[in-house]
Amino acid sequence: MVQKTKTPPASGSDAPGPRRRGRPRAYQPDVALAKALDLFRKDGFAATSLDELSAATGMNRPSLYGAFGDKRELYIKSYQRYRDDARAAMRDIFREEMPIRKRLHRIYAVALDIYLSGEAGPRGCFTVMTAASEAVADPEIRAMVLEGFAELDKAFASCFRLAKDKGELPATADPAVLAQIASATIHTIAIRARARVPRKELEAIAKGAIDVMCGAGR
Amino acid sequence: MVQKTKTPPASGSDAPGPRRRGRPRAYQPDVALAKALDLFRKDGFAATSLDELSAATGMNRPSLYGAFGDKRELYIKSYQRYRDDARAAMRDIFREEMPIRKRLHRIYAVALDIYLSGEAGPRGCFTVMTAASEAVADPEIRAMVLEGFAELDKAFASCFRLAKDKGELPATADPAVLAQIASATIHTIAIRARARVPRKELEAIAKGAIDVMCGAGR
DNA sequence: TGTTTTTTATACTGTTTCGCATAATATAAG
DNA sequence: CTTATATTATGCGAAACAGTATAAAAAACA
Questions:
Q1: pTM > 0.85: yes or no
Q2: CA nearest B148: which of B171, B125, B165, B169?
Q3: Which residues in chain B are contacts of A121 at CB distance < 8 A?
Q4: What are the pLDDT digits (tens) for A23-75?
Q5: Nucleotide with the nearest C1' to A49 CA
Q6: For A2-11, which contacts have Cβ atoms below 8 Å and span 24 or more sequence positions?
């Protein structure tokens, strides 16, 4: 480790810190990344140009490269950001204790908020709409996609396991299988949302799936 | 209808017909369209160039335009071809009489064949992988996607209705809801297939879903 | 044989693409 | 005030892109 200049205190946190040395940045990295994410969600990888990314972020091309690397790296960082955001939006619902039906209902409501947001039409789910397509040829993206699937399956499974322990589900219920159906419902909602299926219908799909998973009783 | 030249007998059918007038075609339209479909499934709309399409079909650019129109039209015709093929592959299974479990099992087997085919990795489902993404901005593609969803939901629903009538399902079963879960299972399998989830795992997901939809009994 | 018709083959046009080289600017440090 | 550092701003350049114009080729017709 031969390095004269003191490494700045790991500027991962966005604390302004002790005054950097050169010309100050004209952009906020996390704001710019959010704009890039918007574009990639709207148009996918190939149809999003660096010119558009530059215009949306307010950063010119060299700054983009300096901050995030080339287009593929920016795409991957956008995807990471998307997953972080989605995870954060669902974390509490998966953590807090509540009846299984309510928990599922709230998860699907959050998912719908994510998929239907967007000014120029519903942006859908990044994983389903663009990342999965890239996954077949890009091992790094594929690993992220697979990890996302596994994480969601696992979270749902532990919900069902807990519910089963609490007697909300019959003893014959298989948490792993129910979890895959819960994930499948997320996926079908994500796809249909992108085709502008109205929210009411998507909510009905979620409701029906919950009934099947938890028993039609109310 | 002012038209001197006799219209060739609606050359929709590929019958060689009564000898056309000018230079004969060097390509077979349906073979070329299949090649184009392969490319669009692999890379999506934006990442597939006309040069690649030209090379794959063996047709040069002007011939492509003459036969199929511009890139978007070719994409749409490829999608129509995909849907026709998929419909044909499933038609008999939806038509013939058989137990609900067996029917579902066979449908998922055919779906897996479609999604996992491809030399350079699984090509996934056209609707899920690329058409749904385009659907948000292109009304014509959107209409096709929505029609596809409705058609699949309907086909599944009538299977479940029949099974219910035959006493294979409890009287409380809701065919429409079960159909949406069957479709959701198709969708989750399509997405995961593209991320190279192995066939065995996808079959397990289908098996689990069938158990939930039809009752775990064997 | 010569004309008409249909397709193929070649090549061009103007635009867009990504990535980078270079120069200008703004700050801290010495 | 000068130097070092970090960023912004401009714009180049080679390649790829979609679509089309023009010419050559291959068949039927007269």
A1: yes
A2: B125
A3: 136-137
A4: 888 888 899 999 999 999 999 999 999 999 999 999 999 999 999 999 999 99
A5: C17
A6: none
